[in-house]
From TrEMBL:
Protein name: C4-dicarboxylate ABC transporter substrate-binding protein
NCBIfam families assigned to the protein according to its UniProt record, in alphabetical order: dctP, TRAP_S1
Subcellular locations according to the entry: Periplasm
Biological process annotations from GO: transmembrane transport
Pfam family, one: DctP
A single Gene Ontology CC term: outer membrane-bounded periplasmic space
Origin species: Brevirhabdus pacifica
Ranges in a coiled coil: none
Keyword tags: Periplasm, Signal, Transport
Family, as annotated: Belongs to the bacterial solute-binding protein 7 family.
């Protein structure tokens, strides 16, 4: 039954892709894994405004598939590469197909969201997009935002890396995150997202790390007493389009899509910023203690975590390790 279900789903996606092709390539399927509600979902908001602009300014039609309707992020990337889904909005899945994108996860790289926007919307972001296009066949139309990730725990307030010692933190099953938490003195424990609430409730782990909006919207603040707004990783969204599909469009259609994507990326960023600000207020109102580290304390976190992660990435990336230096240079220039 499970095999039949997967087969039927794959067949449905293929048939939709065939229909779009035979219709003169005028229909774009836009897919992501977030809810469709634009007021609380950065990808949902980005997708909806993308649809409105494209349909309002061209003869193209946009069909939205939110909430993982066509699969998880890895599956969406694969579908876009196969030409079955034209546009996808993904975050962590990008580094799996374009290793250079993983440099964006180096902890404490961006001191603020506006700094990240300047870097990603500038020469570095353009160069990374071009590199990933060559690697994947997917064009990065724009960068959105998933937000800064922060630590929570149920034991004590975290002000310095020393406060993390002895605490078990749930992390994504990504080596970079394991290296980061170990370097900070914590004990990283890879656990699937679906198992996280139970792991926190039963004490399998003491804490976890996620953007504020994710913490609040999924009720994790009800299972944790403390949150530290250290913003250790800035997570970017990638708004991707199949290059084969894109090149098959008329120049005027391409221009509309580029415009819509730029607005969509900024819309996603705005919604994420709203969710973060609102989320901090709401978790405090509901009893969670929130601590904002000083500049000196954040420097101590960076000094502990960055070298270990950078060393790990240099070993993993090989020739692509140059992207570490290019990112650091771009951040330094944007910070001046």
């Amino acid at each position: 039954m499970r095999f039949q279900t997967k087969t039927l789903a794959a067949t449905a996606v293929f048939c939709m892709g065939l229909a779009a092709t035979t219709a003169g390539a005028q229909t774009l399927r836009v897919a992501h894994v977030d809810p469709d509600d634009w007021t609380g979902s950065k990808k949902g908001a980005a997708a909806q405004i993308f649809k409105n602009i494209v349909e309002g300014e061209s003869d193209m039609t946009v069909e939205l598939f939110p909430a993982g309707a066509l699969g998880n992020e890895d599956e969406l990337v694969s579908q876009a590469q196969d030409g079955l889904t034209q546009v996808v909005l993904v975050s962590g899945a990008m580094s799996k197909v374009c290793a250079a994108a993983s440099v964006l996860d180096i902890p404490y790289t961006f001191a603020s969201a506006p700094l990240a926007w300047e870097v990603l919307d500038g020469e570095f972001g353009d160069a990374l997009a071009e590199h990933c296009l060559e690697q994947t066949g997917l064009r990065t139309l724009a960068y959105g935002e998933t937000g800064f990730r922060n630590f929570t725990n149920n034991d004590r307030e975290i002000r310095t890396p020393e406060d993390m010692k002895g605490l078990k933190f749930r992390v994504q099953p990504i080596p970079l995150y394991l290296e980061m938490v170990k370097a900070l003195g914590g004990e990283p424990t890879p656990i699937a997202w679906t198992e996280l609430p139970n792991a926190l409730s039963t004490g399998v782990v003491d804490g976890q790390e996620n953007p504020v909006g994710v913490i609040y919207n999924n009720g994790l603040h009800k299972l944790q007493k403390h949150m530290t707004l250290d913003g250790h990783v800035y997570a970017a969204d990638f708004l991707l389009i199949s290059e084969d599909f894109y090149q098959g469009l008329e120049p005027a259609q391409q221009e509309v899509i580029r415009k819509a994507a730029t607005v969509a990326g900024n819309m996603g960023r705005a919604i994420q910023q709203w969710n973060t600000a609102e989320g901090v207020t709401k978790v405090q109102q509901e009893g969670m203690a929130v601590y904002s580290p000083t500049a000196e304390e954040l420097a101590a976190f960076a000094e502990a975590a960055q070298p270990a992660v950078v060393d790990y990435l240099r070993g993993e990336l090989g020739d692509d390790a140059q992207w570490i230096d290019r990112l650091q240079q771009a951040v330094a220039e944007a910070s001046n």
